Amino acid sequence: MKTLTLIFALTFTVMFSSTSYAEWTKVGANVHGDTFYVDFERIRKHGGYVYYWRLVDYLKPDKWGDLSAQMYVQGDCKLLRSKTLAWSTYTRPMGRGDHSTFINKPNKNWTYPHPNSVGEKILNRVCASVK
């Protein structure tokens, strides 16, 4: 129960930080032309996990008209897996514009990035930055 409370506390603390203060570093793009960024300044390590913000700029608006999304992610560097704890979508690139969606419902299941994918590259870079 303490761990869950800590995760929510970390999430809310970081969620209310302004995106204008984020230092987004481009990490890569996928085959669809979407560009992915990480805020390396806000990476935190706790209880054997890393917590970080990831931003994606969509090449084209999604079916809801959103052009970007920010995700707060829990990463496991030992098993190279992650799960999204919270996310927001935006009507403009780089997490700007109106909020279309805000979801603060952590995934219960871990995801494992495909080899040589942007997800694998992001997790490897985040894990390397905290060593």
Keywords, separated by commas or semicolons:
7 strands, Lipocalin, 20% helix, 131 residues, globular, alpha+beta
Structure description:
The protein has 131 residues and is an alpha+beta fold. It is built from two helices and seven strands, in the order αβββββββα. Strands 1, 2, 3, 4, 5, 6 and 7 form a seven-stranded antiparallel β-sheet that branches. Strand 6 and strand 7 (96-103) form a beta hairpin. The chain is globular and about 35 Å long. The relative contact order is 0.18. The model is unreliable at 4-20 (pLDDT under 50).
Uncertain spans: 4-20
Quickly count the domains: 1
Name the overall outline: globular
Q: What name goes with the CATH superfamily?
A: Surface-adhesin protein E
What is the gyration radius calculated from CA atoms?
14 Å
> What pattern of helices and strands is seen along the backbone?
HEEEEEEEH
Biggest beta sheet attributes: 7 strands, antiparallel
How many DSSP E strands? 7
Helix content: 10-25%
Write the CATH fold name: Lipocalin
Q: What percentage of amino acids are in beta strands?
A: 35-45%
CATH architecture: Beta Barrel
Q: Please write the CATH class name.
A: Mainly Beta
Structural class: alpha+beta
Number of helices: 2
Provide mean pLDDT, rounded.
87
Give the termini separation. Answer: 28 Å
